[in-house]
Amino acid sequence: MHLIEVSVRKDGITVSGHAGYAETGKDIVCAGVTALIQTLIKSVNDLTEDKIQYEIMPGWADIHFRDLSEESKFLVDSFFLGVCNIANEFPDHVRIM
Description:
This protein has helices spanning 28-47, 70-89, and strands at residues 3-9, 12-18, 53-57, 60-64, 94-96. By secondary structure, the protein is of the alpha+beta class. The protein has a five-stranded mixed sheet with strand order 3-4-2-1-5, covered by helices on one side. Strand 1 (3-9) and strand 2 (12-18) form a beta hairpin. Helix 1 packs antiparallel against helix 2. It is elongated, with a radius of gyration of 13 Å.
């Protein structure tokens, strides 16, 4: 079974797996989650003074942070809203942990 698991913790976010909604390169679920996580990383880095650590590769992303500013918390909340929308639309392919 293919599934993207999203784990949101107090000190970070981990996204792992593949949705399996469609073939590689045409999977809109994977593309949506990937766009959200990449936008979160870029937004925190470019729009705030906060420092985060992250590692990202196909099928896996891990972000660690602490003491986030209100701006970064807002960006994390926005990511969470987006990924929850995808999980609600495609519950067999995305799970929030």
